[in-house]
């Protein structure tokens, strides 16, 4: 926890609990009625993540989210600042052929971040976190990356917010 209060860290969080797997055929980004969404348990979980982070001294961050409704809602309910959509965080679960390109875009985003800047929170999906960090996480869990200053990063921790 202390690490994320210092500069140059990224907290990747898998969206909070949303029952099911993947998305229905024909889902549309921007139309939450066509997607798998947070339930009441997921909304409460997202609020607890924000409470846990603030209790640990994290009062604000640069917050980015995938364009999926469950990720955006998680990011908003965490409540650490305005949420910016970042397409590089979009799930490729149903399109494994898009994985390489999506992960390259996300690595390029990370490489552009200052190694001493404020905490960056990325709310995304299992496949994105696994692809970047090599770690599988449950809904509402996180992985901490330290930006190395040479355009790279290293995994320095895993967070469970309970």
UniProtKB/TrEMBL annotation:
CDD domains: HP. InterPro entries: His_Pase_superF_clade-1 (IPR013078), His_PPase_superfam (IPR029033). This is Histidine phosphatase family protein. It comes from Desulfatitalea alkaliphila.
């Amino acid at each position: 926890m202390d690490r994320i209060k210092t500069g140059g860290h990224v907290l990747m969080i898998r969206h909070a609990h949303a029952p099911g797997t993947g998305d229905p055929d024909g889902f549309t980004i921007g139309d939450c009625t066509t997607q798998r969404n947070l339930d009441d348990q997921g909304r409460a979980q997202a609020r607890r993540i924000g409470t846990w982070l603030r209790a640990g001294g994290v009062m604000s961050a640069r917050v980015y989210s995938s364009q999926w409704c469950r990720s955006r809602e998680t990011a908003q309910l965490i409540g650490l600042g305005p949420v910016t959509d970042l397409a590089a965080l979009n799930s490729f679960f149903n399109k494994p052929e898009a994985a390489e390109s999506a992960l390259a875009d996300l690595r390029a985003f990370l490489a552009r971040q200052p190694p001493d800047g404020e905490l960056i929170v990325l709310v995304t999906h299992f496949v994105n976190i696994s692809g970047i960090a090599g770690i599988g996480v449950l809904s509402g869990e996180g992985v901490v990356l330290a930006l190395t200053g040479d355009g790279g990063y290293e995994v320095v921790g895993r967070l469970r917010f309970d």
